[in-house]
Amino acid sequence: MTVRTLLQRFEDSDVAITVYGPPATKTVGERLTTQGIDATWRKLPTGHQNAFAVIRRDGVFAEAVPLTALQSFLCKPMVDSDDSGTPDSDPGRQLLRSALANTLLSSLTPPQLLATSHEFEDRAYRVGEGTLRVSFQSLSIFRSQRARYETLASDTDLDIHVYGRDDWEPRAIPGISFHPLTDTTLEQVWLLAFDAAGDDQSKCALVAEETEDGPFRGVWTYNPRLVDEIMAAVVAVDE
Question: Cα separations (Å) of 235 from 49, 133, 175, 187, 210?
Protein backbone atom coordinates (compact mmCIF):
# COMPACT_ATOMS: atom_id res chain seq x y z
CA MET A 1 0.00 0.00 0.00
CA THR A 2 1.23 3.48 -0.85
CA VAL A 3 -0.21 6.72 0.47
CA ARG A 4 -1.48 7.60 -2.98
CA THR A 5 -3.35 4.32 -3.44
CA LEU A 6 -4.78 4.67 0.06
CA LEU A 7 -6.11 8.17 -0.62
CA GLN A 8 -7.59 7.03 -3.93
CA ARG A 9 -9.97 4.79 -2.00
CA PHE A 10 -11.69 7.89 -0.61
CA GLU A 11 -11.87 10.03 -3.74
CA ASP A 12 -15.58 9.31 -4.14
CA SER A 13 -16.50 10.35 -0.60
CA ASP A 14 -19.99 11.87 -0.76
CA VAL A 15 -20.06 14.37 2.09
CA ALA A 16 -22.13 17.54 2.21
CA ILE A 17 -22.30 20.13 4.97
CA THR A 18 -25.00 22.74 5.55
CA VAL A 19 -23.99 25.62 7.80
CA TYR A 20 -26.74 27.38 9.75
CA GLY A 21 -25.54 30.70 11.08
CA PRO A 22 -25.30 34.47 10.64
CA PRO A 23 -23.86 36.00 7.44
CA ALA A 24 -20.29 36.13 8.76
CA THR A 25 -20.12 32.33 8.67
CA LYS A 26 -20.08 32.28 4.87
CA THR A 27 -16.28 32.04 5.19
CA VAL A 28 -16.72 28.56 6.61
CA GLY A 29 -18.66 27.48 3.53
CA GLU A 30 -15.95 28.83 1.26
CA ARG A 31 -13.25 26.95 3.14
CA LEU A 32 -15.24 23.73 3.03
CA THR A 33 -15.41 24.09 -0.75
CA THR A 34 -11.60 24.29 -0.93
CA GLN A 35 -11.53 20.96 0.93
CA GLY A 36 -13.64 19.37 -1.80
CA ILE A 37 -16.79 19.25 0.34
CA ASP A 38 -20.15 20.37 -1.01
CA ALA A 39 -21.10 23.27 1.27
CA THR A 40 -24.36 25.20 1.67
CA TRP A 41 -25.01 28.23 3.88
CA ARG A 42 -28.36 28.95 5.51
CA LYS A 43 -29.07 32.11 7.46
CA LEU A 44 -29.84 31.63 11.13
CA PRO A 45 -31.16 34.89 12.62
CA THR A 46 -30.49 33.91 16.24
CA GLY A 47 -26.78 34.69 15.88
CA HIS A 48 -23.49 32.92 16.56
CA GLN A 49 -24.54 31.44 19.89
CA ASN A 50 -26.85 28.85 18.31
CA ALA A 51 -25.04 28.40 14.99
CA PHE A 52 -24.38 24.81 13.91
CA ALA A 53 -23.52 22.63 10.93
CA VAL A 54 -25.26 19.51 9.65
CA ILE A 55 -23.08 16.83 8.03
CA ARG A 56 -24.56 14.32 5.58
CA ARG A 57 -22.90 11.28 4.04
CA ASP A 58 -24.41 9.81 0.87
CA GLY A 59 -27.44 12.03 1.47
CA VAL A 60 -28.05 10.61 4.95
CA PHE A 61 -27.74 12.62 8.18
CA ALA A 62 -24.45 11.83 9.92
CA GLU A 63 -23.97 14.46 12.62
CA ALA A 64 -24.74 17.98 13.78
CA VAL A 65 -21.84 19.88 15.34
CA PRO A 66 -21.48 23.33 16.90
CA LEU A 67 -20.29 25.83 14.33
CA THR A 68 -17.48 26.79 16.69
CA ALA A 69 -15.93 23.32 16.26
CA LEU A 70 -16.01 23.67 12.48
CA GLN A 71 -14.62 27.20 12.62
CA SER A 72 -11.76 26.26 14.92
CA PHE A 73 -10.72 23.46 12.54
CA LEU A 74 -11.16 25.33 9.24
CA CYS A 75 -10.19 28.86 10.18
CA LYS A 76 -7.96 28.81 13.25
CA PRO A 77 -7.03 25.37 14.60
CA MET A 78 -6.42 25.52 18.35
CA VAL A 79 -2.94 24.04 18.75
CA ASP A 80 0.16 24.77 20.73
CA SER A 81 3.21 23.33 19.02
CA ASP A 82 5.06 23.15 22.34
CA ASP A 83 2.18 21.76 24.41
CA SER A 84 3.67 19.40 26.98
CA GLY A 85 0.78 19.35 29.44
CA THR A 86 -1.69 16.58 30.07
CA PRO A 87 -3.71 16.04 26.87
CA ASP A 88 -7.39 16.91 26.85
CA SER A 89 -10.14 16.84 24.23
CA ASP A 90 -13.15 18.94 23.31
CA PRO A 91 -16.47 17.08 22.68
CA GLY A 92 -17.31 19.32 19.71
CA ARG A 93 -14.00 18.58 18.02
CA GLN A 94 -14.45 14.86 18.67
CA LEU A 95 -17.89 14.93 17.02
CA LEU A 96 -16.51 16.78 14.02
CA ARG A 97 -13.61 14.42 13.48
CA SER A 98 -15.86 11.40 13.87
CA ALA A 99 -18.32 12.79 11.32
CA LEU A 100 -15.56 13.62 8.81
CA ALA A 101 -13.69 10.33 9.18
CA ASN A 102 -12.97 8.56 5.87
CA THR A 103 -13.49 11.84 4.02
CA LEU A 104 -10.75 12.92 1.62
CA LEU A 105 -9.91 16.57 2.29
CA SER A 106 -7.98 18.25 -0.48
CA SER A 107 -6.42 21.33 1.08
CA LEU A 108 -5.25 20.61 4.63
CA THR A 109 -2.81 23.04 6.25
CA PRO A 110 -0.08 22.12 8.76
CA PRO A 111 -2.07 23.69 11.68
CA GLN A 112 -5.11 21.56 10.75
CA LEU A 113 -3.00 18.42 10.56
CA LEU A 114 -1.25 19.28 13.81
CA ALA A 115 -4.60 19.78 15.56
CA THR A 116 -5.79 16.38 14.30
CA SER A 117 -2.52 14.74 15.29
CA HIS A 118 -2.85 16.19 18.79
CA GLU A 119 -6.39 14.84 19.03
CA PHE A 120 -5.13 11.34 18.20
CA GLU A 121 -2.11 11.66 20.50
CA ASP A 122 -4.55 12.63 23.26
CA ARG A 123 -6.52 9.46 22.54
CA ALA A 124 -3.32 7.42 22.80
CA TYR A 125 -2.54 9.15 26.10
CA ARG A 126 -5.95 8.28 27.52
CA VAL A 127 -5.70 4.63 26.42
CA GLY A 128 -2.20 4.53 27.87
CA GLU A 129 -0.91 1.45 26.04
CA GLY A 130 -0.39 0.16 22.53
CA THR A 131 1.82 1.22 19.65
CA LEU A 132 1.90 4.73 18.21
CA ARG A 133 3.69 5.23 14.88
CA VAL A 134 4.34 8.76 13.65
CA SER A 135 6.07 10.09 10.54
CA PHE A 136 7.43 13.64 10.81
CA GLN A 137 8.73 13.66 7.21
CA SER A 138 12.15 14.62 8.62
CA LEU A 139 13.43 13.96 12.14
CA SER A 140 14.31 17.63 12.64
CA ILE A 141 10.57 18.47 12.64
CA PHE A 142 10.24 16.34 15.78
CA ARG A 143 12.13 18.97 17.78
CA SER A 144 9.04 21.18 18.16
CA GLN A 145 7.04 18.20 19.48
CA ARG A 146 9.69 16.68 21.75
CA ALA A 147 8.25 17.96 25.06
CA ARG A 148 4.80 16.65 24.15
CA TYR A 149 6.18 13.23 23.25
CA GLU A 150 8.29 13.08 26.39
CA THR A 151 5.02 13.46 28.33
CA LEU A 152 3.37 10.73 26.24
CA ALA A 153 6.26 8.38 26.86
CA SER A 154 6.76 9.08 30.58
CA ASP A 155 3.09 9.04 31.62
CA THR A 156 2.00 5.93 29.69
CA ASP A 157 3.09 2.46 28.60
CA LEU A 158 2.91 3.45 24.93
CA ASP A 159 5.44 1.99 22.50
CA ILE A 160 6.20 5.05 20.36
CA HIS A 161 7.97 4.93 17.00
CA VAL A 162 9.03 8.12 15.22
CA TYR A 163 9.99 8.10 11.54
CA GLY A 164 11.64 10.74 9.39
CA ARG A 165 14.37 11.66 6.98
CA ASP A 166 17.78 11.41 8.63
CA ASP A 167 18.58 15.14 8.90
CA TRP A 168 18.99 15.38 12.68
CA GLU A 169 19.98 13.04 15.51
CA PRO A 170 17.52 13.25 18.43
CA ARG A 171 18.70 12.41 21.91
CA ALA A 172 17.40 9.17 23.41
CA ILE A 173 13.99 9.25 25.10
CA PRO A 174 12.83 6.16 27.08
CA GLY A 175 9.78 4.63 25.40
CA ILE A 176 10.47 6.19 21.98
CA SER A 177 12.28 4.51 19.09
CA PHE A 178 13.58 6.69 16.26
CA HIS A 179 13.70 5.38 12.70
CA PRO A 180 15.80 7.41 10.24
CA LEU A 181 14.35 6.70 6.82
CA THR A 182 16.46 5.57 3.90
CA ASP A 183 13.36 5.13 1.72
CA THR A 184 11.73 8.30 0.33
CA THR A 185 8.20 6.84 0.55
CA LEU A 186 7.26 8.79 3.70
CA GLU A 187 9.25 11.99 3.09
CA GLN A 188 6.22 13.89 1.74
CA VAL A 189 3.79 12.25 4.14
CA TRP A 190 2.22 13.38 7.42
CA LEU A 191 1.21 10.16 9.17
CA LEU A 192 0.08 9.02 12.59
CA ALA A 193 -1.34 5.60 13.44
CA PHE A 194 -2.35 4.13 16.81
CA ASP A 195 -3.30 0.48 17.37
CA ALA A 196 -4.73 0.99 20.90
CA ALA A 197 -3.22 -2.31 22.07
CA GLY A 198 -5.73 -4.18 19.89
CA ASP A 199 -8.84 -2.33 21.06
CA ASP A 200 -10.73 -1.77 17.78
CA GLN A 201 -12.91 0.92 19.37
CA SER A 202 -9.91 3.17 20.04
CA LYS A 203 -7.78 2.70 16.92
CA CYS A 204 -7.18 5.74 14.72
CA ALA A 205 -4.92 6.96 11.93
CA LEU A 206 -4.20 10.09 9.92
CA VAL A 207 -2.51 10.02 6.51
CA ALA A 208 -1.83 13.10 4.37
CA GLU A 209 0.33 13.71 1.33
CA GLU A 210 1.94 17.05 0.52
CA THR A 211 0.80 18.37 -2.86
CA GLU A 212 2.84 20.24 -5.44
CA ASP A 213 0.97 23.46 -4.59
CA GLY A 214 1.82 23.26 -0.88
CA PRO A 215 -1.31 22.09 1.02
CA PHE A 216 -1.77 18.49 2.08
CA ARG A 217 -4.35 16.05 0.74
CA GLY A 218 -5.42 13.57 3.35
CA VAL A 219 -7.84 11.54 5.38
CA TRP A 220 -8.25 10.25 8.92
CA THR A 221 -9.97 7.06 9.94
CA TYR A 222 -11.19 5.03 12.90
CA ASN A 223 -11.69 1.89 10.79
CA PRO A 224 -9.71 -0.78 12.68
CA ARG A 225 -8.83 -2.86 9.61
CA LEU A 226 -7.57 0.20 7.77
CA VAL A 227 -5.56 1.35 10.80
CA ASP A 228 -3.92 -2.10 10.96
CA GLU A 229 -3.11 -1.86 7.25
CA ILE A 230 -1.52 1.56 7.69
CA MET A 231 0.51 0.34 10.67
CA ALA A 232 1.81 -2.60 8.66
CA ALA A 233 2.69 -0.38 5.69
CA VAL A 234 4.81 1.90 7.90
CA VAL A 235 6.69 -1.07 9.35
CA ALA A 236 7.31 -2.38 5.82
CA VAL A 237 8.88 0.92 4.72
CA ASP A 238 11.41 0.67 7.56
CA GLU A 239 12.40 -2.94 6.86
Answer: 46, 9, 17, 15, 21
